[in-house]
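Question thread 4412

I'm putting together a teaching handout and wanted feedback from people who do this every day. The idea is simple: show students a protein as raw sequence, then show them the structure tokens that encode its fold, then repeat with a second protein so they can compare. Below is the first pair exactly as I plan to print it.
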Amino acid sequence: MENHEIIDSEYQKGFNEGYVLARHNRELAEKIAEALKETERGRGIAEGCKEFAKEKDAEKTKIKLPDWLKKDKLKSIEKEKTKDKDFHDKA
């Protein structure tokens, strides 16, 4: 069952603004969120900042493989090895 929670439009605006602000200037976003912490928009800004930080941290922890280690490249390397074996085995 889907969760149909009604979100305050001011909170949603703040969340989106906080996310974008955090991307460009995290310190400023945090200061604005602190100044407006008593409002729905301020709470949204704070949550948007947190969401951006969480996604950025998750991105850092992803393992980035070089091209030659990626799955498609490994398959083509295996094909090349089997072609070489077939050639040498026939000789």
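The second pair follows. I'd like the answer to focus on this one:
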Amino acid sequence: MKFLTTYWKPDEEDEFSLAITYGHGGSCLSHSHKQQYMFVYQSLLLWRHIMHEMFKLWTLCEVRWRGEGIETVIPFVLVLVSHVFTR
């Protein structure tokens, strides 16, 4: 994220634009620089939150899985994943 926010700004398009043009380089999509910047930023933010909670998620699954079935693990995993998405 630091690299993205250091070298690009959502409202400043220059020669290193993040825009995607349909048909260019095999692209099937078209996005403006700002749209692509926001997509990349949100994706990186989501992965940062997931990685921050990964140990908790792994520990929760490991502890619950030992003596109980998967049906008891899933609700706890869903709560943790929901927490990540609401950040």
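Top answer:
Good format. For the second protein you could add a caption like this: The helical segments are 2-7, 33-67, 70-85. The radius of gyration is 19 Å.
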